[in-house]
Amino acid sequence: MNRPEREAAVRRIMERTPPHVPNGLHTDVVRRGSRIVRRRRTVRRLLWLLLCAATVAFVVWAAVARPWVEPPSQTTPPLTGW
Questions:
Q1: pLDDT in tens, 2-59
Q2: Integer distance in angstroms from the first to the last C-alpha of the chain?
């Protein structure tokens, strides 16, 4: 298809009357959209709750285990010079 044919095809498509929209379509779309928004909001809140719980668990573990402290030596140093 060359350019004039494509332009003519587009003009024919745009000059047609728009298709008829069913009567209850708007209410169905609004209902489904609000359900999707609620679901996304719930998932987002659950993910934030999970992130906060993981952060608290890490802080509690770090406070109890203190991984930055060097563990005590398992052997005694040799006694020399007595």
A1: 999 999 999 999 999 888 889 999 899 999 999 999 999 999 999 999 999 999 999 9
A2: 102
pLDDT digit string, tens, across residues 61-74: 999 999 888 887 77
The CA-CA-CA angle for residues 45, 54, 48, to 5°, reads 15
Q: Which two tokens stand for residue 61?
A: 């573990």
Distance CA 61, CA 54 (A): 10
Contact call for residues 1 and 9 (beta carbons, < 8 A): yes
- Report d(CA 29, CA 37) in Å as an integer: 12
Alpha carbon distance 16, 71 (integer Å)? 80
Give the whole-angstrom CA distance, residue 35 versus residue 19: 27
